[in-house]
Amino acid sequence: MRDTDRAEVNPVEERPRTAAQQRAAAVRARGGGRVGLDREAREAEDKAIEQWIDEGPVRSEAVAAVERAEPRRQRSAELDPEVAERIGAVVPSAQRAARLRERLTAGYEALGRDRFGDARRIGNSVLKELTEVAAAHELVGFANYRLGAWRQAAVALERAQTLRPDPGTMPVLMDCLRAMGRHREVEAVWRELKEASPGHEVMAEGRIVMAGSYADRGDLRSAIDLMESAATRPKRVRDHHLRQWYVLADLYDRAGDVIGARRWFETIAANDVEFVDVRARLRALGR
After folding, report:
1. What one-character DSSP code corresponds to residue 15?
2. In angstroms, rounded to a whole number, what is the distance separating the alpha carbons of residues 68 and 65?
3. Which among 110, 113, 90 has a CA at the least distance from the CA of 100?
4. What is the pLDDT of residues 231-281, one digit of tens each?
5. Dihedral angle at the C-alpha atoms of 132, 200, 180, 20, nearest 10 degrees?
């Protein structure tokens, strides 16, 4: 094992513990704040971000979305054949290409075990030689996202999209942009996602993040309207239906519409009474 490989292994996880800490880390990650801010202004921005604590259901669902978006094919013992072939195409040495495939696989395995710091270090190391491989940028993007480094995550995921468009990563990119307050860009990616017509689960993830963007701006009406547009009751209820209904119910609750909130929490309970904290939410609403 090379010394650089040893340095990538770290049993101590570096995840910020709270959303407030994650947002403070986000400011530090983008160079201490927006371009042109002096030290005093950057400290004021850090303080403001630390005071914005968003631990609600919309944020929880957005964070959960990345777990589903992380390419499962990279978590197995072998890389996706397409990725492995791409590495071989950009690395002249067959021996070095094989080593980089091993490192990339190890990075995704670390990501799957919630060792986000290790995943990021491995990803950054392989990117030195795999700048034209989308999967390497995705690894760095996912790891930074889970560490709350929104800017680095967004840059990496945008580069991955340029190399290999993948609707499955768009909700994660949207949430990075949302966390940085770049709501117009969130809307732009949301439009691209809709045009791509991905599967229902990916659309659900994007819709949840877009609703969260509206809610962040105090536009609960637009957030509710967006979630209502997909609130059909299918013959077979799947997990992504329950997730969307839960966010919709929570938005109604936040808007002060007790009847609307109770209606959707009851709909969830009728299908899965153990889903998240539906029992407690209904009790709080006076069911």
Report:
1. -
2. 5
3. 90
4. 888 889 999 999 999 999 999 999 999 999 999 999 999 999 999 889 999
5. -120
Map residue 198 onto helix, strand or coil.
coil
Question: DSSP characters for 125-185?
Answer: HHHTT-TT-HHHHHHHHHHHHHTT-HHHHHHHHHHHHHHS--GGGHHHHHHHHHHTT-HHH
Among 80, 150, 147, residue whose Cα is nearest residue 108: 80
How far apart are alpha carbons 170 and 205 in whole angstroms? 9
Residue reference for tokens 């094992």: 1
Report the C-alpha gap between 150 and 12 in whole angstroms. 21
For residues 111 and 105, give the distance between their C-alpha atoms in angstroms, rounded to a whole number: 10
State the angle between helix axes of 170-179 and 134-146 in degrees (0 to 180), rounded to the nearest 10. 40
Q: Measure CA 97 to chain center.
A: 29
Contact call for residues 176 and 154 (beta carbons, < 8 A)? yes
Stated length of the chain: 287
Q: How far apart are CA 229 and CA 240, in angstroms?
A: 14
Residue 249 burial by Cβ neighbours in a 10 Å radius (0-12, 13-18, 19+): buried
How far apart (Å, rounded) are the C-alpha atoms in residues 163 and 189? 16
- What is the number of other CB atoms lying within 10 angstroms of the CB of residue 86? 21
In contact, 146 and 15? CB cutoff 8 Å: yes
pLDDT (tens digit per residue) in 107-160 = 999 998 999 999 999 999 999 999 999 999 999 999 999 999 999 999 999 999
Report which residue type is found at 167: P
User: What kind and span of H or E run contains 250?
Assistant: helix 239-254
Collapsing DSSP to helix, strand or coil, 93 comes out as coil
What is the residue whose two structure tokens read 């899965």?
272
**For residues 179 and 54, is the Cβ–Cβ distance under 8 A?**
no
